[in-house]
Amino acid sequence: MKFRRHGLIASTVLALSVMATACDGGGSNARTPAESASSSEAAAAKVVTHVLEPKPDDPHSLLHPGPPLTGAIPAGTTVNGKVSAQTFDGVPKVGAVFFGVGGVVSAHYCTGSVVQSGSGDLIVTAGHCVYNKLFGGWNNHIVFVPGYHDDTAPYGVWVATTAYLDSTWVASQNPDVDIAFLKVREVGGGTKTLESATGADTFSEAPGYTNAISIASYPLTAKKPVGCTATTKKYSDTQLELDCAGLPDGASGSPFIASGDRLVGVLGGYEQGGNSPTTSYSIYFSERIAKIYKATSGS
């Protein structure tokens, strides 16, 4: 992604991490993932379960407790007829995804959100935020801070323990399955679940291609998120497209939230989320994607 990739690579160098976005894509007339992926690959796909935390040590962090700053995701501002994301205080169920480097919580590089689950400890982000061949494979040290603002973790700091991805993402970075579900645990222990503290969106299988949504994203190094409202449309059988200018480096994994707190997409997929500052993409939540989500509960 030309627009989002450069800042993410800079963050990766600073954090000595192995994660970043990987590829440039073509324009709207480019061959779509649905047209290029083989049917045999899809038929052979399985859910990969990967343990991220074989040694459960709490990372050190300069983040501190503090009151939440919450508000509705904004509509955005309109410039030259285009909606552009604007800064706001944040919402509890969306947060910044941080590197854990050398046992220390470092820079945030993606966005994640809480998704409803039986265990109450599940978040979702883009697959390339968790596994990327170009930068060494697995990022095994991922920290989620819901409602993050101003170096504050109002709902605690949560370490990712287990990742769930489609096997063809791991094997070939198939853009049609650029999604990861992560189970998390709270740093410092405790009995509350993440979902009980923040609320959650409901995973929506086969939501249709046209949805009025809100989207919240954490720009790299920013102290607060940005957000806007938009409408998705069909880009291909396996991809959604939306227009919202100014979605930043760090936006990968941002949730597409439709009415009724339904999760209908996450920023990623084609061109790993977008190759311009005005157009973004998400994978379509097909039965295949639902299979990954269902695997988190063993169903």
Automatic annotation (TrEMBL):
<protein>
    <recommendedName>
        <fullName>Serine protease</fullName>
    </recommendedName>
</protein>
<dbReference type="InterPro" id="IPR009003">
    <property type="entry name" value="Peptidase_S1_PA"/>
</dbReference>
<dbReference type="GO" id="GO:0006508">
    <property type="term" value="P:proteolysis"/>
</dbReference>
<dbReference type="InterPro" id="IPR018114">
    <property type="entry name" value="TRYPSIN_HIS"/>
</dbReference>
<keyword id="KW-0732">Signal</keyword>
<dbReference type="GO" id="GO:0004252">
    <property type="term" value="F:serine-type endopeptidase activity"/>
</dbReference>
<dbReference type="Pfam" id="PF13365">
    <property type="entry name" value="Trypsin_2"/>
</dbReference>
<feature type="signal peptide">
    <location>
        <begin position="1"/>
        <end position="22"/>
    </location>
</feature>
<dbReference type="InterPro" id="IPR050966">
    <property type="entry name" value="Glutamyl_endopeptidase"/>
</dbReference>
<dbReference type="InterPro" id="IPR043504">
    <property type="entry name" value="Peptidase_S1_PA_chymotrypsin"/>
</dbReference>
